[in-house]
Amino acid sequence: MKIRSLWRAFLYGLLSVTLSHPAYCDDTAIFRPTPIEKAPVIDGHLDEDIWAVAFEMKDFIVIEPDTKKPGAYQTRVRMAYDKRALYLGIINEQPADTQVRRISARDRKWMGRDAIRVVLDPSGQGRYGYLFEVALGGALSDGTLQPEWHYSLNWDGPWVAATSSDENHWYAELAIPWDIMEWPDREGERQIGIFFRRQVSHLGEYWGFPPIPFNAAVFLSDLAKMEVVDINPRGRLTFYPYISADFNGMTQERKESIGTDVFWQPFSNMLVSATLNPDFGQVENDKVVVNFGATETLFQEKRPFFLEGNDIFETNGLRLIHTRRIGAPPDTPVLSPGETISKQPSISDIVAAVKITGQKENLRYGVMAASEDDNDFTISGDHEVSVSGREFYAARALYESNGAGRGTVALGYLGTLARHGTEDAWVHAFDGTWQSKGKRYRLETQLAVSDTKGEKGFAWNGRASYTPQSGTEYRIDLDYLDDAFDINDMGYMVRNDRFKFYGYYKTYHYDLPGFKRLSYSISARGEVNDRLLSMRYQGLLYIKFHNLTTLITELAYMPATWDDLNSFGNGDYRRKAGYTAGSSWMSDQSKLLSVYISPRVYTEDNGGVSKRLRVAMDVAPLDIWQIHLSFTYYDRQDWILWQEENRMNGFDADQLGFSLGSNIRISRNQEVRLGIQWVGIDAKGKTAYRIDPDGFLTESGEDADARSFDYAEFSTQIRYKYEFAPLSDLFVVYSRGSLVYWDALSKRDDFGDLFRDSCEDRDVDRFLVKVRYRF
C-alpha cells in the first residue's frame, strides 16, 4: 500500500503542474563566420588582421546558476573558416587578479578554472555533437555528445588551441579541423549546430550562448546555427602507428610490439577505420576497486580505435557493446579430471579489427568486426593447450526524423555476435525515441532478444520524462530482463531476471536569500522478480552558497528485501530494512586549496550500522602543478560476505583507502604524472551465519574469527609524456602493483603493516616505452 500511495502522489504531481515556458530555441540565431584564405597562427594572441574583421557574437547569458542575466564581463567570440577548419578567437574581459589559471592533464573534469567550451553538431539537427574546451593556460578537453545531454570525454581529436592574458583580459584561439568530425552527405551550404560556454571560476558561474541552462530538458536540439559554404570535410587518411618496448620485472621478460590504427574518410559522410595489433592502453592504470560481491566491475575503454566513432553503437538503454570484452582474458580450456592450469594469458591479443560508420540523409549506420589471436595455456606444468581466439561483430542502423511539426522521432537497430569456438552468442535490439515539438515530453524505449548457448532471452526498457518548465523535471524508468537474457559475451549488464523501476521529481531555484542555487529531488527505485530485490526511497538537497561552498544532504530508506546474487548460487537471503544518511561539503574550487568532506552512515544487510568518511583535497602549488589527494575510511559493523556453501560471515572491518595524483606540465608539450592508489581492509570475523530454509541469516555457532582476514591492493604509476604534435606522443611509464591477502593465521594488526607488506610485495612490475605518431 505504501508503494501504491507513492505512485499516486507522483502521478498527481505530474498532472497538476502548470505548463510554463518551453526550452530555449531561437531559430533566428544564425552565425555566419568570415571565410578566409590564410589560416591564423594558433598562439593565443589575436594579432592577425583577420581577427579585426571576423564575424563577432557577444551575447553571453548566465546559465549556471540560471539567472538569465548578462555576464558580468564582456565575452566576444570572433569566427572565421576555410575549407580545412573553423577558427575561433575569443576575447574574455576579466581583471587579472580574478583570473584562475590551472594547467592540468587532458580531459580533467569539474576543475575550478577559467575556460571556454565550444560544442559543434555537424548534422545541424541535434543528432550528435563534439565538444572542444580550452582552459586559461592551454589545458584541453574534448569529447562527444549524444541527445540530449549524454556526453563522454573518452574521445580525443587532433585540434589545437592556445591562450594568453593581460591585465584586463584573457584570450583563447582555436583551430578545429572539419575532417576530425563525421558529417552528413551535403554539398554547398551547411548549417551546423553551435554552442559556446564560458566558465568564470571566481564567480562560480557558467555563461553561454545560446543560453541553455544546465537544468534544461534538451541541449543538442537547441543549439544555435552556424552557416558555412564549400567546406571540405573529406579525404582524411590518417595512419596512427605505435611501437613499444615492455619489460616485465616479475618474469624478466621483454616484449616488443608494433601496431597501427588507420582512419580513412573516403566521403564526408563515411569513416572507415581499422587496427592491427592494438595494445590495451598500458599508459593508464585502471582505478583500484575492491569487489567481494558477485557483480562484475565495469572498467572504461581507453584504446583509440574503439573510441573513434563508437557513439553510434551506444543506445539509451542496455550497454550492448562493451569493447573491453575484445582483448579481455581468453576463454579457459576444458580440463580433464585432475588437471590444473599452470600458466594462462592475462589478455587476448587482437589480430585485427575494422569499423565503418557513416550517414545517408536521415539514416546513420555502423558496422564493426574484431578477431583475437589463439591463446596458449600451460596445463599441469607439462603441456600446452591452444584455445581459439574469439570473434566479435556488430551492426547498427539509426533513422532520425524531425517529424514536420510533430516532434522528433528516432528508430534504431543494433545487433551483435560473439563467437567462441563452436558457441555463438547473438543479440538483436530495437530502440525508439520520441520528443514532442515543445520539447517538454520525451519517450524512449528498447526491445532486445538474446540467444546464448541455445537459450533465448528477452528484455524491454522504457523511459518517460516531462519538463513543464526550465528547472523542473519528472521522470519514470521501467526496465525488464527475463532469466535467460544475457549480453555479457559482448556487452555489459549487472544481472538478469528482474523488473526495475525508477521515478523521480527534481526542481531548481536560483538567487534565493543566502543561496546561489538550491535544488532538491525525491525518488523511488526498486527491483523485483518473484521477490523484492531492492527498494530505495530517497530525498536529496543541494545548496550552493554565495561564497561558492556547496552542501549536499541525502536521506534514504530501504525496506526489507532479498539478495539472490551474493551467496553465489547457495540460496537467497533476506536483507533487513535499513537507511542511509549522509552529507557532502565542498569549498570554493577556484582557490589554490579546495576541500571535500563527506560523512555517511548506513546499514548493512543484516542490520549492522556502518560509517564512512571521505576527505579529498585539490592543491595547486603552481599553475603548472596540480595535486589531488583523497582518503576514504569505513568502519563496517556486521559486514556480510559469502564464505562457502550456504555459510555467510559477518565481519567488523576497518577499511582505509587513499589516492594521490600529481600532474606537472613541465612545458607546453611535456608532462609528468604520478598516480598512487592503495586500499587496505582489516576484517575480524564477528558472527557466522547460515541461510536457513526461510532465507534468514541465522547464527550457526561456528567460529567466525577463524575467517578473519586482511586484504590490501596497491597500484602506482609514474608517466612522462612528450607531445610531438596533437595525438603524437612519447610515453615512458613505470607501473608497480600488488594484491595481497592474509587469512586468520597470518593477519596483520594495523594499516601500517598492511601498507608496508603490500608495497614490498609485487604482482606488477613493468617498464614501458611507447611512441605513437599520427601521420
Features:
4 helices; 24-stranded antiparallel barrel; nine-stranded mixed beta sheet; 775 residues; single chain; mainly beta; disordered N terminus; 4% helix
The major β-sheet equals: 24 strands, antiparallel, barrel
End-to-end separation in angstroms reads 65 Å
Q: Give the amount of beta strand, in percent.
A: over 45%
The total of beta strands comes to 45
User: Taking Cα atoms only, what radius of gyration do you get, to the nearest Å?
Assistant: 27 Å
Low-confidence stretches: 1-27
| Total DSSP helices | 4
Average pLDDT over all residues = 88
Helix content: under 10%
Shape: globular
Quickly give the structural class.
Answer: mainly beta
Question: What can you tell me about this protein's structure?
Answer:
The chain is mostly beta strands and 775 residues long. It contains 4 helices and 45 strands. It has a 24-stranded antiparallel beta barrel. The radius of gyration is 27 Å and the shape is globular. The protein starts with a helix and ends with a strand. The relative contact order is 0.09.
